[in-house]
Amino acid sequence: MKQQKIKSTFCLVILAFLFSLHSSAQQSKIHYLSNTITSFDQLISKFKNKIVYVDYWATWCSPCRQELRDVKTIKKFEDFAVKNDVVILYVCVDHDGNKWKSFIKENHLGGYHILTNLKLDTDTKSKFSFYENRRGILKKGFYIPRHLIVDQKGVVADSMAVGRGNPKLYAQLQNLIGKH
């Protein structure tokens, strides 16, 4: 009886250890960038000679949350990105850093993460907003979720890229990878 209790305790300790390794491996794929970055160009310069898939999102954005909770699609894209040396950069336009970090951890969003500040947000919107006719009125806007692709030279290859679940994204990235 005592020997069985020791075996059970040993198994629990081993399982706890393995779980902690798995959790730390998941967390190590999450990298937070300083929110002192003030421009899109400064942000992208951190990833020289890399293809960067940029995902603009917010915790208050229902379509963003839905897209980022699609575990199968997220995992498939993360695997593709790792295999092909593509950087995934999540830019959150929230103002609540606690909700932002909680969402990232809960959904195991591997990649680089930054919470925008006023200067970065203003710079991004000045570069990537577009005009749209809304009920007969021409309005300038920056809508999320929004995806961009930046090539190895730091040039925006697509400022209106498709989402992770779209086969066109993989073809577009493969084309950029092949040019390198």
Overview of this structure, please?
- The protein is α/β, with parallel strands linked by helices and 180 residues long.
- The chain has two domains: 1-29; 33-179, Glutaredoxin (3-Layer(aba) Sandwich).
- The protein is 48% helix and 22% strand.
- The chain contains seven helices and eight strands.
- A six-stranded mixed beta sheet has the order 1-4-3-2-7-8. Strands 5-6 form a two-stranded antiparallel sheet.
- It is globular and about 80 Å long.
- The chain starts with a helix and ends with a helix.
- The model is unreliable at 9-27 (pLDDT under 50).
Give a concise summary.
By secondary structure, this protein is α/β, with parallel strands linked by helices. The chain contains 7 helices and 8 strands, in the order αβαβααβαβαββββα.
SSE blueprint:
Elements: H1 2-28, E1 30-32, H2 40-44, E2 51-57, H3 62-68, H4 71-84, E3 86-92, H5 97-106, E4 111-115, H6 118-128, E5 130-134, E6 137-141, E7 146-150, E8 156-158, H7 167-179
Parallel strand pairs: 1-4, 2-3, 3-4
Antiparallel strand pairs: 2-7, 5-6, 7-8
